[in-house]
Amino acid sequence: xxxxxxxxxxxxxxxxxxxxxxxxxxxxxxxxxxxxxxxxxxxxxxxxxxxxxxxxxxxxxxxxxxxxxxxxxxxxxxxxxxxxxxxxxxxxxxxxxxxxxxxxxxxxxxxxxxxxxxxxxxxxxxxxxxxxxxxxxxxxxxxxxxxxxxxxxxxxxxxxxxxxxxxxxxxxxxxxxxxxxxxxxxxxxxxxxxxxxxxxxxxxxxxxxxxxxxxxxxxxxxxxxxxxxxxxxxxxxxxxxxxxxxxxxxxxxxxxxxxxxxxxxxxxxxxxxxxxxxxxxxxxxxxxxxxxxxxxxxxxxxxxxxxxxxxxxxxxxxxxxxxxxxxxxxxxxxxxxxxxxxxxxxxxxxxxxxxxxxxxxxxxxxxxxxxxxxxxxxxxxxxxxxxxxxxxxxxxxxxxxxxxxxxxxxxxxxxxxxxxxxxxxxxxxxxxxxxxxxxxxx
Length: 442
Ligand SMILES: Cc1cc2nc3c(=O)[nH]c(=O)nc-3n(C[C@H](O)[C@H](O)[C@H](O)COP(=O)(O)OP(=O)(O)OC[C@H]3O[C@@H](n4cnc5c(N)ncnc54)[C@H](O)[C@@H]3O)c2cc1C
Prior knowledge:
It is a single chain. The chain is of the alpha/beta class and about 450 residues long. It folds into two domains: about 5-45 and about 85-120 and about 275-345, FAD/NAD(P)-binding domain (3-Layer(bba) Sandwich); about 125-270 and about 360-415, FAD/NAD(P)-binding domain (3-Layer(bba) Sandwich), CATH 3.50.50. The chain has 13 helices and 25 strands. Strands 5-2-1-9-21 form a five-stranded parallel β-sheet. Strand 7 and strand 8 form a beta hairpin. Helix 7 (about 135-155) runs antiparallel to helix 8. It is globular, with a radius of gyration of 23 Å. Residues about 430-440 have low confidence and may be disordered. Flavin-adenine dinucleotide (FAD) binds next to helix 2, strand 2, helix 3, helix 9 and helix 11.
């Protein structure tokens, strides 16, 4: 912050709103409070907002990381009543109205937790240790480097079993993330692997999608699930339903029926749970691993502390008695609604209850194929694919991001090439956990 801007910010006497997490919900709050009578401080452990719905495209070399990330300081630059600190919140001390972070303590009058969610391994310790995750840009880049390294490794493998292990890619969880990732990997097999790894038989690459449910996209209608399954099978993805991964290491996984699959790469996309911070245990729903909130997003038992987005569990009448789905639209709408309520609060007006407007669901499966559900209607094909692209582009945070994504998609569509295929990590020996921060390798 420039010194005059800093002096201006420091001098503000408005109530202090501390927003933790600049994802969909947190950023909506920050943008909504810009220029309003609140002194806002955004804390995030990253320095950028991440557009998670397109992470799988970074992981599969369709988009560069800077197409889906946007620095917080760029967003808040024109907002004189908003400041940002890169900090990881470690504890909330509600009695003192303070949060403790890795860079010091911060005080608040109103605290808003917009922490998002983390990967849920459902107690599967082997997978927590060995599988890769897709929740952040660095993890997406790691997956990208990993599959490219496996391709390169396969080129020099002499042993048939070793070669197959390099080219067996397992994705656990057939929700939108697993389905989209599988479809994108299948596209890579028929474009990149076939044409640029010419000495290798591209048919050796297997993409195996595993889910314990009896259909893919279980939160969609049966019609959409069947359509998505057909698209996946057309692309040559092996879909194993009604199966659970019960064990695994860096070279194989074991399923609940006792069968084993040799693979160097397992990506876990089977579920998420809310991110929680010590200090507010009384407001936590243990089973859901989310904060229990009322219809104004206030955390149960705490005045002046709100949770929004993936981490908030709000029972909304008969429509959402078990809470809302952990998706971006809920996070955005809750963030926007909380802003309205905070502005009503300044005026001494009563707070209004949140109502979720479900705008539908969609998932894309490779080139020119997607499934879309809006209201009672569900459809697939090219129209669904175009709609999916439109919705995702307009939701991106900045104009530059939108342009970059459009350019990359256009280029890829016309050229049939994923060109952003740089391996951007040091060589990692097998055995290193690839989703964890790097430890220098010898
Ligand atoms: C791969 C993937 C694909 C998805 N696809 C879709 C889709 O197609 N459509 C859809 O609607 N939804 C999709 N989602 C879900 C959607 O991204 C989430 O529902 C949404 O991001 C939730 O928003 P949020 O604001 O609650 O949390 P997030 O967007 O996750 O933001 C949380 C923020 O909090 C920060 N944070 C967390 N803990 C701390 C801490 N202790 N201290 C400081 N900062 C912290 C994080 O760095 C992050 O910036 C997808 C998610 C993933 C992972």
